[in-house]
């Protein structure tokens, strides 16, 4: 069984090697890629302000209240 699997893998590798010819990339491209990988862009991460937290909390409370009121109306309407 292992010999058959090895043979299939070798056949697949040979097919891929025949279809995918290796290329020689341009030196400028390789150098630019190396530079970008070694020197990632500078990023500034801003800490969230307290205003955003308050807005999220207020929106959640308001949304919860509206959902509660709508569900209460639906339940009362269905229980008639």
Automatic annotation (TrEMBL):
Transmembrane regions listed in the UniProt entry: 50-71
Keywords, alphabetical = Membrane, Transmembrane, Transmembrane helix
Q: What is this protein called?
A: Uncharacterized protein
> Which species is the source of this protein?
Longilinea arvoryzae
Write down the superkingdom of origin: Bacteria
């Amino acid at each position: 069984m292992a010999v058959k699997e090895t043979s299939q893998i070798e056949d697949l590798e040979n097919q891929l090697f025949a279809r995918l010819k290796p290329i020689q990339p341009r030196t400028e491209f390789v150098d630019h890629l190396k530079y970008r990988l070694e020197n990632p862009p500078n990023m500034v991460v801003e800490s969230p302000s307290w205003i955003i937290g308050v807005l999220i909390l207020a929106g959640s409370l308001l949304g919860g209240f509206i959902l509660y009121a709508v569900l209460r109306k639906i339940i009362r309407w269905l229980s008639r």
